[in-house]
Amino acid sequence: MAIFAKSDKHMALIILLATSSRCAVYKPPHLNDETFEKKISNYPLAFVMANQDNNTFCSDVLPRFRAAGQMFQNKCQFIVINVEDSPQIISKYNITHFPSLFVFRKGKLITEYSDIKNTTHIVKYLRRITGNPVSQLNTDTEAYDFINSHPVSVILAGDNEMDESILEKFTTVAKELFDYVPFAYAAEPSSYGQLGFDVLPAIKIHRVADDTIIDVDMENLSNIDVFKSYLLANIKPNYRMKDGILFREFVDDNRYKLICLLDPTKKSSMKSMHLAMRAAVTRYGNIFTYGYANIKDMVPLAIEIGFSSTKEPCWAFINFSKSGSLINKFFLPEGTDVSPDLLIRFGDNFLTNYNILPIKSEEDDSEGPGPLRKLVGKTFKNAIGNVIHDIVMLLSCGKEEDIKTAMTTVNAVAMEFQKQKVNSVLFYYINIELNELPGLEKLDLQKPAIVFWPAGKERKPMMLPDDYDPGQLMKIVKSQAKTNPKVKIPSKFDLGSLEL
């Protein structure tokens, strides 16, 4: 008894320390506008979560993000930024969805993490991008497991007679792009046979997410830049499976959504869904956004749409308000065996009843010269739906000389905001002769015009005079902006030279 009494205090201390160690929660550092740029370049690899207070999706993801950080903190720096104290960072990287996860390498944004946002998937992703850029597939089981554990993957198949330079070039590209998509080399008959390779060497893009396989022309590999561009243009699925967190992309997109709720463990259901969904994507293009989800994960939504959630599949066109409430729905009876023809008839009927027409839009939606970003019809509505920023937009039309003058003026102001590191005001331009402006009243313009949207949920556009010089334009933007940009109006602007 005396021994126990003497050691009791020490045992209690040991138990207390052990308990504290087990209960300690890893908390990634929170950076803000003042600290982010200074520190992010110090980390070889950083995984950043854009967070928003009082956001249910963020509250769900943050503990999973921390748990992944606990497991991976020796190989990757986890960081949290809050929209409330990082508005400039949020603006600089054009972050509009919360939560969003991003990969940075040595201070440079590489890509947004787009897979399921739980601890298991995050750790699996980080394990991949910190390992060998090209996985070796030696058996049929390895090949099957690899493509089915990634929504998209790029596979090279070859045998002993393959030119070594092919694998070298493939590996070079993989080192640059493996943050975006996993790469693998199938070098054994059992592995490339499992993946359907008949001719060697060959490269395929496997998109399990939308059940698509793309044969890559081997000539593309002769030019590494061409090969990279081809991959980046083809690795994004037309639709994919959504979990509860990824579903927020649907909520934030202004377009109607074609959704299928089903049991993904049933091969027949998945096969029918892919056939019908591909037909819809081919028919309607960017009129809608598309996705599917496990009906067991979406019972509240299924019931809100009008399904009992006891039968599958469940097909519907739906849309949400800005707050995330379901506002419109158009659905087939649950359990309907949907063929491609039936879905197209259903879609055409929906378009007729809701008077939804395709948006006239250019395909090119590159950012444009300098800080002046280009919009097209299909990206216009999402851009002006961003209520946390003030927006200056040049509506381009008329004579080329007038367009260039107006573009030079707006770009000069945009460059000045960028130079002074003020990111709360966004600058865009859009060709209104080639693109529709959904949500904006039809304008009868013969020459370029400048429109200003102040930040805030009740924003209303205002037309600015079209004869302003850069100083006058910057002065009125500064006075009207709701974000109170701290900018100084210079006596001289850099007019630069634009190649339009």
Choose one word for the global shape.
globular
CATH topology of the largest domain: Glutaredoxin
Described by strand count, sense and barrel closure, the largest sheet is: 5 strands, mixed
Distance between the termini: 89 Å
User: What's the Cα radius of gyration?
Assistant: 26 Å
Number of strands: 20
Helix proportion range? 25-40%
CATH architecture of the largest domain: 3-Layer(aba) Sandwich
Which band does the percent of strand residues land in? 15-25%
As laid out across the biggest beta sheet, the strand order is: 1-3-2-4-5
Q: Regarding CATH, which class of the largest domain? A: Alpha Beta
The helix/strand class is: alpha/beta
What count of helical segments does DSSP give? 16
Tally of domains: 4
- Look at the structure and name the CATH superfamily of the largest domain: Glutaredoxin
Average the pLDDT over all residues and give the rounded result.
86
Indicate the topology:
Elements: H1 2-23, E1 30-31, H2 36-40, E2 46-51, H3 56-72, E3 77-82, H4 87-92, E4 100-105, E5 108-113, H5 119-129, E6 134-137, H6 140-148, E7 152-157, H7 164-177, E8 183-186, H8 189-194, E9 202-207, E10 212-216, H9 224-234, E11 240-241, H10 248-252, E12 257-262, H11 267-284, E13 289-294, H12 299-305, E14 314-320, E15 326-331, H13 340-354, E16 372-374, H14 377-384, E17 390-396, H15 400-419, E18 425-431, E19 449-453, E20 462-464, H16 470-480
Parallel strand pairs: 1-3, 2-3, 6-8, 7-8, 11-13, 12-13, 16-18, 17-18
Antiparallel strand pairs: 2-4, 4-5, 7-9, 9-10, 12-14, 14-15, 17-19, 19-20
